[in-house]
């Protein structure tokens, strides 16, 4: 059950982190051994989200640079929740990946402006219903994208967050419940309500 | 990530985003982050990416334990080097070939060793942080060596 997904399945990191802060090399080696795989995955995943696909050697270089900076700058000292640093490491490693591509001036892939790339065609048809002009006929995908963004902005924050995760990031109810730490039933009702509101909003725009 | 809205006040710190995903925030703090990520695609992207990465890492076996960890700890290059060295005496006909294989496996073992990787880290620190940083690391190494040395 992913309802209450726990990230602390790797044991308490407190002593490991304390050791690393005190520059204990055995703790440092243990930390690298424990989380090297996660750091690699996190860099790759975050860059992929931005459309960058770097080879494994580049990812390893970024990882080495990240670990060196972690050691040199004592970044672990700023981590308040030291019991489990997996998520913080994943976020920071992802940032390091993005910093690398910016530093190396690797050309950013074009933005996926097409609404069909952000929301599946089937989902979109369901939202805009049959009466709404198809994008190929009267609306450019950019215009439709803007309208959907406006409709999303009009939703209350909670519903907007859930529907974004569901529609744009293709997350299932279980995953959303895991990320937002809420019961699946609440996720389901948020999605239903948000869909109805979106449909209504888009209908009124016709 | 597309459509990053920058009209959202200040971005929360990465530690706060991590705490959000770890469910380590108070209800009020949690609500604030929810409000923020509902409008900020950049921070939402960070959270989703971290969630996916940790999830994938976990599914791949994470930091491994038990048998997997034991197998990982065995240095196969060293084992093969020893086998090759032993065999070089058993099969005198292939003495040179097996000795060369021992040498190559030995080099691979040294390159792969943790201490070598640590030296690379120290070298990196020296390159970026200067001699001061490197000497600080060496000093720490000396101190830990002294601590480990048995008393006479």
What features would you describe in this structure?
The complex is a heterodimer of chains A (206) and B (152). Chain A is an all-alpha fold and 206 residues long. Helices cover 66% and strands 0% of the residues of chain A. Chain A is built from ten helices and no strands. In chain A, α2 crosses α3. Chain A is elongated. Residues 1-9 of chain A have low confidence and may be disordered. In chain B, α2 (27-39) packs across α3 (41-59) and α5 packs antiparallel against α6 (95-112). The longest helix of chain B is centred in the C-terminal third of the chain and has 35 residues, at 114-148. Residues 1-7, 64-68 and 145-152 of chain B have low confidence and may be disordered. Chain B has seven helices and no strands. Chain B is an all-alpha fold. At the A-B interface, α2, α3, α4, α7 and α8 of A face α1, α2, α3 and α7 of B.
Draw up the topology in text.
The complex is a heterodimer of chains A (206) and B (152).
Chain A: H1 14-21, H2 25-49, H3 56-72, H4 86-103, H5 115-118, H6 121-128, H7 141-153, H8 157-168, H9 173-180, H10 184-205
Chain B: H1 14-21, H2 27-39, H3 41-59, H4 66-73, H5 76-90, H6 95-112, H7 114-148
Helix pairs in contact in B: 2-3, 5-6
Oligomer: heterodimer
Taken in chain order, the helices and strands of chain B follow as: HHHHHHH
Query: What overall geometry of chain A do the principal axes of the alpha carbons give?
Result: elongated
Order of helices and strands of chain A: HHHHHHHHHH
Q: Tell me, rounded to a whole number, the average pLDDT of chain A.
A: 80
Extract low-pLDDT stretches of chain B: 1-7, 64-68, 145-152
User: What are the low-pLDDT stretches of chain A, counting only 5+ consecutive residues below 50?
Assistant: 1-9
Q: Indicate the radius of gyration of chain A in whole angstroms.
A: 21 Å
Helix segment tally of chain B? 7
The total of beta strands of chain B comes to 0
Largest sheet of chain A: none
- Helix-strand category of chain A: mainly alpha
Q: Can you count the helices of chain A?
A: 10
Global morphology of chain B? elongated
Distance between the termini of chain B: 62 Å
